[in-house]
Amino acid sequence: MDRLRIKGGNKLKGKIYISGAKNAALPLICASLLTDEAVTLTNMPLLSDIRSMNALLEQLGTKIESHDEIVDGNACKSYTYHTPKFESLVAPYDYVRKMRASYYVLGPLLARQGYVELSLPGGCAIGARPMDIHLSALEQMGANIEIKNGYVIAKVDGRLKGAHLVFKIASVGATCNVLMAAVLAEGETIIENAAREPEIGDLAKMLNSMGAKISGIDTSVLKVEGVERLHGTTHKIIADRIEAGSYAVAAAITRGCIELVNAQAETLQTPIKLLRQTGVNVEEREHSIVVDAEGCELVGQDLMTDYYPGFPTDLQAQFLTLMLTARGASMVTETIFENRFMHVPELLRMGANINVHGHASAIVRGVDKLYGAPVMATDLRASFALVLAGLVAEGETIVNRIYHLDRGYEKLEEKLRGVGADIVRESDKEEE
Ligand code: UD1
Question: What's 29's domain CATH number?
Answer without folding.
Answer: 3.65.10.10
